[in-house]
Amino acid sequence: MDSDQRRMLEQVERYREIVLAYEAVDQEIDDLIMAFGGLMENMPPDVLLRYRELARQRDELLNEMRALEHELQIDDDA
């Protein structure tokens, strides 16, 4: 295996890790929202702070996913 193939495999593995992390954070967000009747407005301040922290993490993971998709030339429309 040459260095280009190795690099590609490393990027694919990193992408997989990011997707799994994204899905875990997204599920935690969904669980928080559902625990308060589906409304953020029902969340107490400490839970709302956690929700916002998780949302920022999810956004960062999504940005990283998109960057790797571009590098790996992954097209969701294909």
Q: What would the principal axes of the Cα set say about the shape? A: rod-shaped
Distance between the termini: 28 Å
Mean pLDDT: 92
Structural class, by secondary structure, is: mainly alpha
Query: What is the ordering of alpha helices and beta strands?
Result: HH
Strand content: under 5%
Helix content: over 70%
Could you tell me the radius of gyration in angstroms? 17 Å
Q: Main beta sheet: strand number and arrangement?
A: none
Low-confidence stretches: none
Number of domains: 1
Count of extended strands: 0
Number of helices: 2
Protein model, in words:
This protein is mostly helical. The protein has one domain (3-70). The chain contains two helices and no strands. It has helices at residues 3-35, 45-72. Helix 1 runs antiparallel to helix 2 (45-72). The longest helix has 33 residues, at 3-35. It is rod-shaped and about 55 Å long. The mean pLDDT is 92.
